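User: When convenient, might I ask for sequence and structure tokens for a protein?

AI:
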Amino acid sequence: MRNTISLLLFLLYGVLVAQESFYDDTVNLVQVDISGTKPTDIPGIMSTETDSIVKTLQQFNSSGDLLKKNSSVYVKDYGPGQLQSIALRGASATHTRVLFNGLEISPATSGQVDFNTLPVYLFSSSAINYGNASFAKGIGGLGGSIEVNTAQLEQFTGLKGDLGISLGSFSDYRAFGGVKFSSDKFWSNTKLSLRTAANDFSYTDITQEGSPEVTQDHAQFDQTGISQNFGYRMNSNLELNADVLYVNTSRELPGTMLQSDADEEQDDEIFALQLGLNRYGRIWLSKNRAGYDLNRIEYRAPSLNFYSEITSRKWSFRSENRIEIDQRTSFSGILNLKSEEAIYNFIDESFHRTEGALLLGLNRSIGRSLEFGVALQPVYSQDSMVLWLPVAGISFNPEFISWLSLGANYARNAKFPSLNDLHWEPGGNTALVPEESDQVEINAMATVGTLLSVDLMAYYSEIRNWIQWVPGNSGIWSPENIKEVEQSGISINLKLNHKLQRWNFRYIAGYQYVRSIDRELNKVLVYTPEHMAHWTIFLSRGSFDFNLAYQYNGSRFIDAANETYLPDFDLVDFGASYTFVIENLAFRLGGEITNVLDKPYMNVVWSPMPGRAYRVYLTMSFQKK
């Protein structure tokens, strides 16, 4: 609780400072646009984009690490290089859809993405769509969705490039490099990310007598990632683009504190190919994208003489159209189609499914301050099941308070069972029905130029037919629709920019309260912390930059009866860098210390996390017109 109070004091300090000063320059750390919470196409619904400064500092890391530093979402992290899953608003990781340039890349098999397989550097931007903000992106995101994007219109003409290398504790070596080219008609953006780490950190093993210090072994991590974005402007209204993403991850799976002889290994492969055609017009806006993605997991356990390979393939199409009927009225139509297949080599079987959804919506403005929107999204699966999912939103921007925006929204969403849920051998259950949710949200956003922005969201949600794997009479686990879950919560985010003499100051902070209850048991869901918080302070003067970051994770129950829990923990990170120029090349030499206070903690029970760690890095960038 004292950590939560500390965060609220920081928020209050930011507001007080904002009342006494005006920001007239950008933080020197990076010369890029600053992003934050923004309205979506449906009135009264907001989406949160990743802060660009935080993204720049996290270029060597995974997307899961980025979200830890830039939001108050809970990242369930099994350790360096291991599984990172994200649950939004108290839902499960399978209720978080992951979108690459607007098309879903969550595998059809498990339905969830490992964020350690998505290097930050490969993407130009990312965003979090909490709750109903994911509705227009397609169904299934009962908690929300995460977007990572490479398809981005370049606003310069010429050549850009960058390189980076970092050396860290526990034999952790990372590198990246990329080149961008843009002309009046054509642009290309190529990126490469490399990482290798032994992850041989020491930790206190509390399961052994005397709690000795031991070194983690069998935790090698190797990763190569490539992204490529092409674009061509056919004329002032038409734009073609193509995108390729490939990430190959090989890792050893270390044992827990209760397992000393682990020998499992896993290879993950992600491949995505997309083609897009966009039409920009004063009356008609159309964005169309078709894609293919493959997600392959190869698992080996030599001591058990076991090998498996699971492949998920998906063909997707999305067409998003908006027509301005008049100055006050617009019509939108969004079509989502996908055909997916799961291939299980260990049973020599494959399964196929198709889904489709068509969202039809109408937005209408009333005066200068009020706008409302309604939409209906019929959804179809190959099982001949049709669901009718409504959404409605309203936003109010008072003329007399131009810096304030208020909103409210409601949506019904649904998620079909994953192909693992339906067909896993043994235990799959083809009688499962879709999970459905109803969620209502109110929100407020205050923006004072580039000086200050604050957003507040409060929500209530009910999820029916929650799918959970449970043991049967024969001892075989099988999924069933057994839960009704009630979720409620609030979140607040703040960003402040300030300049004091020669110092540039930037402050971001967030707090989230989540209550996710199993109605039958009246108990909190496992691994769902009620309190999450973060803040980061950036200071810049001349060529020097400093940042101090704080994260707080509340306690998590690890059993359904709420009798056993992991204690809360908080972490402090510090970083500094120096920028210098040699001819036309800009260099940044920096370093960071993570877990400065060297606190022992576990994010997942019996999975140790590293103590204090160090990293130094050097990046170089250039631009030629």
Q: What stands out?
A: The domain at 2-624 is CATH 2.40.170.20 (Maltoporin; Chain A). The longest helix spans residues 2-18. Residues 1-35 have pLDDT under 50 and may be disordered.
